[in-house]
Amino acid sequence: MKQLLLMSSSRKGNLGYLEHADEQLNTILSDKIKRVLFIPYAGVSFSFDDYEKMVRPVYERLGYELVSVHQFDNAAEAVASADALAVGGGNTFALLTRLYENKLVELVHERVADGMPYMGWSAGTNVACPTIRTTNDMPIVQPPSFSAFNLVPFQINPHFISGKPVGHNGESREERLGEFLVMNPKESVVAIPEGTALYVQGDQARIMGEFDGMVFRQDKVETLASGGEFPLSQING
Amino acid sequence: MKQLLLMSSSRKGNLGYLEHADEQLNTILSDKIKRVLFIPYAGVSFSFDDYEKMVRPVYERLGYELVSVHQFDNAAEAVASADALAVGGGNTFALLTRLYENKLVELVHERVADGMPYMGWSAGTNVACPTIRTTNDMPIVQPPSFSAFNLVPFQINPHFISGKPVGHNGESREERLGEFLVMNPKESVVAIPEGTALYVQGDQARIMGEFDGMVFRQDKVETLASGGEFPLSQING
């Protein structure tokens, strides 16, 4: 059965790295998992070693080992035998480019369909979608395609925040998602504020965290109340 | 001789559409130009007709006719015979996708190299660069390539603003450009705040407007003082 924890962000307010996320992570982690395989490819301005050092204590605190995929000679073999996958945030375009370089896109899709638990945050949530077309990140490198892991049948917008910065003429997040839906009128976008996650188990999902999620569709915007369970098919219904 | 006016934004503070830009536009416009051809392809949440109606009065006020390329049966023929080109803001990915669909990318590069004046703002400035890798926009549609008009030998970041929104854990603009330079260490990015433009005449350039520009390189950040002339080659030197 498919199991996904798709988190908006690594941080919430002034809390430390994934400090808000213990309850969310414990929902998907279980004693069937000994070691979590970490994908650090979204990290750009710091080393994969440093990224691994930052994330390992989060999982150790919860009782799990963690090792980064860059420690293995063959990334695909490491993914093929992983107990669970954690895909960290950073730049979504760097992440997807490196996933293609390491031939992991199809493989992760298949392993998650077979039941390997998947945890992602920020960029790691963007790549869980059919494509990366609702990332907030700068396209600093061109991936071979925008197509990603396709683990849920809709787009997600992490780090959702309403409105726009004062004194600046850029678009608000709502306007950006509205533009996405003009260009892609049959699609839907689940927007999750920082600290919030979408938890998926099989065909059912729920929003976890203090805040509600939202679904943006071409003709309407709806609230996804935190804690309420719904079928995945409801989002694109 | 190449002539470019690459504006950061259509708006500055609370001023109306291109209201701040008369002096900047007059620098590149001349009595050799009767009619400006407008490219509305970055517009997503409003019609090309409406976009043309918004921009036409700006040019009429300065004494020039303006017609949008979507009024012509063949966009390439319209560009081939244009006196000058104005490329409006909106979504950079929609703009570049439609430029490719209408087979305009190579053609605009050639016509500008031959001396046709080019005016762009926001997305219209992003596509003047070698690629769109320093746009701030959401990648709502996948263009065939990130490669763009390549009218200047460096990237530009429009709508430049320092720092990050309070209470949100996204990256600051400086951090985003820093990540670009980690992935592309030999490149440079000229960052221009709203209301500011980069004016290029042949091999020389200067920043126009109230604020200074900046050049981001891997190892340092420098100010480009408003009004001071410099050779284009200095940016990547």
What keywords describe this structure?
homodimer; 237 residues; alpha/beta; Rossmann fold; 8-stranded mixed sheet; 4-stranded mixed sheet; hydrolase (chains A, B); Class_I_gatase-like (chains A, B); serine protease (chains A, B); Dipeptidase PepE (chains A, B)
Quick overview:
Chains A, B: Keywords: Hydrolase, Protease, Serine protease. Chain A is α/β, with parallel strands linked by helices and 237 residues long.
Account of the protein in words:
- Chains A, B: Belongs to the peptidase S51 family.
- Chains A, B: Keywords: Hydrolase, Protease, Serine protease.
- Chains A, B: InterPro entries: Class_I_gatase-like (IPR029062), Peptidase_S51 (IPR005320).
- Chains A, B: This is Dipeptidase PepE.
- With 237 residues, chain A is α/β, with parallel strands linked by helices.
- Chain A has a single domain (3-234), classed as Rossmann fold (3-Layer(aba) Sandwich).
- Chain A has helices at 22-28, 48-61, 75-80, 92-101, 105-113, 123-126, 173-183; strands at 3-7, 35-39, 65-68, 84-87, 118-121, 155-160, 189-193, 197-201, 204-208, 213-216, 221-224, 229-231.
- The longest helix of chain A has 14 residues, at 48-61.
- The mean pLDDT of chain A is 95.
Radius of gyration of chain A: 17 Å
CATH-level-2 architecture of chain A: 3-Layer(aba) Sandwich
CATH homologous superfamily assignment of chain A = Class I glutamine amidotransferase (GATase) domain
Tell me the name of the CATH class of chain A: Alpha Beta
**How much strand of chain A?**
15-25%
Order of strands side by side in the largest beta sheet of chain A?
A: 3-2-4-5-1-8-9-12
State the helical fraction of chain A.
25-40%
Total domain modules of chain A: 1
Order of helices and strands of chain A: EHEHEHEHHEHEHEEEEEE
CATH fold-level assignment of chain A: Rossmann fold
Q: Oligomeric state of the chains?
A: homodimer
Chain-averaged pLDDT of chain A: 95
Silhouette of chain A: globular
Structural class of chain A: alpha/beta
The description of the largest β-sheet of chain A is: 8 strands, mixed
Cα end-to-end separation of chain A? 22 Å
The two chains with the largest interface, and their residue counts, are: A-B, 40 and 40 residues
Report the uncertain regions of chain A: none
